[in-house]
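>> Question from a student workshop board

For tomorrow's exercise we were told to take the sequence and the ligand below, predict the bound structure, and bring the output to class. My setup keeps failing. Could a helper post the expected result so I can at least see what it should look like? The ligand is guanosine-5'-diphosphate.
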Amino acid sequence: MSRQYPIEKYRNIGIIAHIDAGKTTTSERVLFYTGISHKIGEVHEGAAIMDWMEQERERGITITSAATTCFWSPGDYLKKDKTNEHRINLIDTPGHIDFTAEVQRSLRVLDGAVVVFDGVAGVEAQSETVWRQADRYHVPRVCFINKLDRMGASFEKSLQSIWDKLTINAVAVQYPIGQEEDFSAIIDLMEMKAVKFEGEMGKDVIKFDIPESSLEEAKKWRHKMVEKIVAEDEALMERYLNGEEISVEDLRAALRKATISYKLIPVLIGTSLRNKGVQLVLDAVVYYLPSPVDVPAIKGVDPNDEEIKLERHPKDDEPFSALAFKIATDPFVGTLTYARAYSGHFNKGGYLLNTVSGERERIGRILRMHSNEREEVEEVYAGDIVAFVGLKNTTTGHTLCDEAGPIVLEKIVFPEPVISIQVEPKAKADQEKMGASLKKLQEEDPTFRMETNQESGEMVLSGMGELHLEIIVDRLKREFGVETNVGRPQVSYRETIERNADAECKYVKQTGGRGQYGHVKIKLEALERGKGFEFVNEIKGGSIPREYIPAIEKGIKEAMAKGVVAGYPLVDMKVILWDGSFHEVDSSEMAFKIAGSMALQDGAKKAGAHLLEPIMKLEVVVPPDFLGDVIGDVSARRGQIEETEDRPGVKVIYAKVPLSEMFSYTTSLRSLTQGRGTSSMEFDHYEKVPGNISQEIVEGKRK
Ligand code: GDP
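>> Workshop helper replied:
Here is what the output should look like for this input. Compare the format with yours to find the bug.
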């Protein structure tokens, strides 16, 4: 067998957006126009195609990151010509910020993205966050300003907010005819044609001459577009300056190059709900976003020696490599491991090596997911996105590869959870089932942690936000039939040190029989936020024999996990072990472990250990009448207002607020604004807890 589709005709893309910008609606239109889904479900009717999990439908948000394959020939809306068909793998990304980790893992495996904006709100806080993440993962993208039909929508203002807040490299390739309720057609500035959408769900794309009334404006915008594009291509620039008319093909090719190298970002417009413009977005995906061969080779390391850097190219004759980016439990086939293949090819029935777990996995079945059917496939090629069935030891972020060419692909880094709750089953008999079910859910979602509290024996779940944990508890009930009692959410505080300090501990016991002797001298150094823990062994001349060093490190780590202020883990510090002594007979691993642990505790206190709390970035949208009340309330929650902004009919407040003050905020906001305010929140950074509040936490007064 050989590959069906040339890899140049693949587009592995995601649609990313602020919640409510219209990602789900746009995705559904994509599936409809690509001809796979023939019946379309509106979000509010709860029949969205990509959202198959029950509570996603109820909440109207998309949590899981499924991949769906569809096909598109740009400009050929009747799909007559199969020769120019492209395979688009649409990787679903969640819109709610509590699930940024899901966004991240999808960004990791996609080659390009469509960023959807609300044409009324323009760039919102979360759009900025996802935008920065896409920057971090070097994802080329096109923008789609959606909802141009809504009252208050503005192409110019939305574009301006993209220029102001995200990038000056955004270039409009379209211009609207009419806006708000008069929005009737889209001018394609490349072809200088007007486009309207008629028939069922706007499936008939009709091109016509730009009406006289819009011609002036269209010419102006085309001029801007052409200047921006030719500026990125010297040869084109020269021709342009010589007065030559640049062809649409040349402009597209130059814009494609500039988009892939992050120099330009094409901006498109439309309204998904009213069926205008989505086909042109699909065209743009093919025209401007990269295929797997247009992006840099994937990097990794040799599993046997991390120092050896390796690369894999999107070629069928290289060793097979793939990254697992999503584990899902399917009621019919069991565990599905979604993976993106980066190099080589692989036939089902063979074995793949998981270079992270070290296990071999037999691949009995491979599925390609379409929106409403699964296709059994025999083989996987570089660039493909597929689901492997029934893998046992593979989780998100693991590499699966050819045993003959092992590699560990760059891992996906997830943020630390900031909030936790205690759970217990309503029925005692469900204890074991709850544990097993949680373990399953955790395999799917690496940002969610579970732990058994040593003292109370209760199960503690931690995650990215209240909603994140709510959904997990909900899934326990729905999917596994385990009903639970849930405690109040708790903030995941941390501890850290303020300054450097020296510490020493000589742990000596000589009471009959064999004694104990461990003696260590350490230095503690404060590290930047987010740096974690570093242990450095500087013992020279054997003042402590090498075999005891791991025990000392272990003692230090255990003490750090317990903290010294209020029982929260110590983070962001470096511990240097530089001296000590030992006893020929009495020294033992145990004695050194205790000495390490005690020295750390002593040192941390000397170094000004204090509590850290998660600070959230908050965005609240309210009608102007409520502005004062909402600001007052945010301030009372120790919030710092950073900015307020005017939008048509509403005010937007940007603030930084400690998470501990924000439980059930959505409910109180609702009552404060007669149900008219909305908010979104995401983790920003950890900050020192003020003295009086720290006191309350230490004394256990603050729950
Ligand atoms: P998501 O949260 O980004 O997935 O957004 P949805 O697709 O669920 O859309 C959020 C809401 O906006 C829904 O009520 C949609 O019906 C509505 N919506 C989506 N696209 C448009 C549009 O182009 N115009 C208007 N007026 N509403 C839209």
